[in-house]
Amino acid sequence: MNRGKDSNRAEFDASIDKLRGQLGSSGGDGLAFLVxxxxxxxxxxxxxxxxxxxxxxxxxxxxxxxxxxQITRLDELRRKCAIDSAIRPR
Length: 90
Known about the structure:
Elements: H1 9-25, E1 32-36, H2 41-53, E2 58-62, H3 68-81
Parallel strand pairs: 1-2
């Protein structure tokens, strides 16, 4: 389906190729992924590949289960230790 109409694989591939070209020319500026915290070697490999292809992309990890206090404490720890946290774009 594409905009409510039947589509096929060739049309999908053409759309992806067009999008890839547009994003590639900007380095992925404006491309963003919002994902849950999952420890997956496959997803990390895919993220790494995407970051190489689109160095300006934004990868955000979100955990809906964190309380405001936990987010604040993780942010303070991240600043203090200069490490990534689950609530900041990577």
